[in-house]
Design brief:
Length: 44
């Protein structure tokens, strides 16, 4: 495991992690919504 140091470099790592987490959440939401609409059109 990497050591976490409290210095300005930590902000860069945090923003990168935040960007990855947000993009993952958006991708999951899009896939779930498209899945839901796909099956609602099939059943309809």
């Amino acid at each position: 495991m990497a050591r976490v140091k409290l210095n300005p470099e930590t902000e860069e790592v945090g923003s990168t992690f935040k960007f990855i987490a947000i993009s993952l959440t958006v991708a999951l939401n899009i896939s779930v919504l498209s899945w839901f609409f796909f099956f609602s059109k099939l059943s309809g």
